[in-house]
Each structure stands twice: as structure tokens, then as C-alpha cells.
Specification:
Helices cover about 25% and strands about 35% of the residues. The protein is of the alpha+beta class. It has a five-stranded mixed β-sheet with strand order 1-2-3-4-7. A four-stranded antiparallel β-sheet has the order 6-5-8-9, with no helix packed on it. Keywords: Signal. This is Spore-associated protein A.
């Protein structure tokens, strides 16, 4: 193969590899510029959520980019529930955009784990689920009618060996 052809093929392969990395790691662009000012925080967010976003701009910005544009941070839940935010194994983020909601469960464990994330409309219909072994996050999962949307978040070595089994009647505001 000629040197010019090898160079052209090499450049094409490098370009394709970069495209694959971009598609498989959408949070990379946010992680490279972790600036909390890039993340809109809902005026309805709790003081704890606002404090978490300020103290953890990188993860908050990374999760926001996974949902898509126009989403504002609504709620943050360090998991397991009741855990010191600095000792968390996962973080559940919820974002809103008009009447739509998006949830992400960030893997803070440091290695691939079984993760399960589900959000539904208040009546239990219209559920969106993501599950599998993930090293970075489960989700995004979306709900079109977010008032009082119930959420389930699980994490463990396997689906039958869980150390996080979080359920809440809502991850978005009930009003």
C-alpha cells in the first residue's frame, strides 16, 4: 500500500474512532469543562440540591448534557439514601424541561456495576427504563408528564445482589 493511501486510511480510521468515542461517551464534553454555571438549576430545587450542584459542578454538568439541551436540574439524591454525599456510591439526578422530565443515575462506585433506573407517570404508565452493567451511568430515562413521577434506582454487583434499592413516590415536584 502506498504511503499516501496508508496516511489517508489512517486518518479515516482515527476520525471514525473519534466519532465512536463521541457517540458512546456523551458526557465527555461536559466533564472536560465542569462549570456549574453551564447547568441551569430549577428555581424549585431544594437548598440541598443547589448546594450539591455548587459543590459538585463536574458530575452535575456531565449528567445535564446526557439529558439534552434545555433541561434544568430539579433534584439530586446521593445513594444509598442517607449517605454522606462524599461517600455516595451513586447519584440520582432529575432534570426538567417544560412538562418533561429526565433522570440519570451516575455510577460513583468506580467500576462497572449492575444498574437499573425506571421513571413512570404518576399512574404507573408510560414508564421508561434503562438497565445493565454500566461504568458511568444508567439513563437517561424520560417521562412526558412529570408531576409526582415515581422512580426506582437499583445498583449492585448483580441484579440479585443489590446495595442500592431506592424507590420514591416522586423525583419531580408534586403540584
Amino acid at each position: 500500500m502506498s504511503r499516501i493511501l496508508r496516511s489517508t486510511v489512517g486518518a479515516a480510521l482515527a476520525s471514525a474512532a473519534a466519532a465512536v468515542l463521541t457517540l458512546t461517551a456523551p458526557q465527555a464534553s461536559a466533564a472536560e469543562r465542569p462549570d456549574a454555571t453551564d447547568v441551569k438549576v430549577s428555581p424549585r430545587a431544594s437548598a440541598e440540591t443547589k448546594a450539591f450542584a455548587k459543590a459538585n459542578p463536574g458530575p452535575t454538568a456531565a449528567a445535564a448534557t446526557v439529558c439534552g439541551t434545555g433541561y434544568a436540574l430539579n433534584k439530586v439524591v446521593p445513594l444509598p439514601e442517607g449517605t454522606d454525599p462524599n461517600m455516595r456510591l451513586a447519584t440520582l439526578f432529575s432534570y426538567t424541561n417544560g412538562g418533561k422530565g429526565c433522570a440519570i443515575m451516575d455510577n460513583n462506585y468506580g467500576a462497572s456495576q449492575y444498574m437499573y433506573l425506571k421513571v413512570c407517570k404518576v399512574d404507573g404508565t408510560g414508564c421508561d427504563t434503562d438497565s445493565g452493567n454500566f461504568s458511568e451511568y444508567a439513563g437517561p430515562v424520560y417521562v412526558s408528564s412529570l408531576a409526582c413521577a415515581p422512580v426506582t434506582a437499583k445498583m449492585g454487583k448483580t441484579s440479585s445482589s443489590l446495595y442500592i434499592n431506592y424507590k420514591s413516590d416522586y423525583v419531580f415536584a408534586c403540584n
